[in-house]
């Protein structure tokens, strides 16, 4: 069992229009993480209850998410990013939604969280507009987290198709590419998930569950590696104890000196 932190926007409007996080981009990954046996916590820039984008589409999974008592308790009082301890989590997932274009990029607390987790070997993941939280994030090696990495995010073409390109403070995919990301893009609205080491990103709402599944695969591998390491350490300890016991018995069998 691992711990996953889901980060949601606190922004409820953009250029005067209501916004927030995309419901399915939180609900579908939540179900994947939960069904895999992982613990899911929630955080946001301002804490409290994050706003849901009114344009979010509903389905059986989003209904399950909204009916789940544990989820609702967590969403009613999400942790403020500045108080989150990165070393408490094995993976972070940045939930998309146009609200993230307002308060993810340039948030020093989110940047600290992402960079610390990445430097510490945790999984960093995001979907749709969530990768806005990866922009300008620098790692301990001096490189930006997306530099030279395969990355998928909401495309400029998709933004244009829904008529919001002019309303955005920047075009996400263009900015990621400008920071060295190697964009992996599918046709508009088709699923596209990119995995590059411990960085997992997805293009749009259709990619949300796929991102979570890839994160689970990585976490499963980490669990197996940890278990193998623990077993190897236990075997080594048993061998040491057996050797010490054998040596002690041999000492007892030696004749006493006159």
TrEMBL record:
Highest rank taxon of the organism: Bacteria
Span list, region Disordered: 229-258
Record-linked InterPro entries: Class_I_gatase-like, DJ-1/PfpI, Prot/Nucl_acid_deglycase
Lyase in keyword set: yes
Gene3D superfamilies membership: 3.40.50.880
Transmembrane segments: none
Database matches in SUPFAM superfamilies: Class I glutamine amidotransferase-like
Keyword Repeat included in the entry's annotation: no
Pfam families linked: DJ-1_PfpI (PF01965)
Keyword field: Glutamine amidotransferase, Lyase, Stress response
Residue ranges occupied by any DJ-1/PfpI domain in the UniProt entry: 20-217
PANTHER family: GLUTATHIONE-INDEPENDENT GLYOXALASE HSP31-RELATED, PROTEIN/NUCLEIC ACID DEGLYCASE DJ-1-RELATED
Family affiliation: Belongs to the peptidase C56 family. HSP31-like subfamily.
Record-given protein name: Type 1 glutamine amidotransferase domain-containing protein
Organism lineage string: Bacteria, Bacillati, Actinomycetota, Actinomycetes, Propionibacteriales
């Amino acid at each position: 069992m691992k711990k996953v932190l889901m980060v949601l926007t606190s922004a409820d409007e953009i250029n005067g229009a209501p916004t927030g996080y995309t419901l399915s981009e939180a609900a579908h990954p939540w179900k994947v993480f939960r069904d895999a046996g992982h613990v899911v916590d929630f955080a946001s820039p301002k804490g409290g209850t994050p706003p849901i984008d009114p344009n979010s589409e509903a389905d059986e999974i989003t209904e399950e998410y909204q009916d789940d008592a544990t989820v609702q308790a967590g969403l009613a009082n999400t942790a403020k990013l500045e108080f989150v301890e990165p070393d408490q989590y094995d993976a972070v997932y940045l939930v998309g939604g146009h609200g993230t274009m307002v308060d993810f990029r340039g948030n020093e607390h989110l940047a600290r969280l992402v960079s610390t987790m990445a430097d510490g070997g945790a999984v960093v993941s995001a979907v749709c507009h969530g990768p806005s939280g990866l922009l300008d994030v620098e790692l301990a090696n001096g490189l930006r987290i997306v530099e030279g990495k395969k990355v998928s995010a909401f495309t400029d073409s998709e933004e244009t198709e829904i008529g919001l390109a002019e309303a955005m403070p920047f075009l996400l995919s263009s900015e990621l590419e400008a920071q060295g990301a190697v964009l992996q893009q599918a046709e508009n609205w088709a699923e596209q998930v990119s995995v590059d080491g411990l960085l997992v990103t997805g293009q749009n709402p259709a990619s949300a569950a796929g991102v979570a599944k890839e994160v689970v695969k990585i976490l499963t591998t980490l669990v197996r590696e940890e278990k193998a390491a623990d077993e190897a350490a236990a075997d080594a300890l048993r061998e040491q104890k057996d050797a010490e016991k054998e040596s002690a018995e041999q000492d007892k069998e030696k004749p006493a000196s006159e």
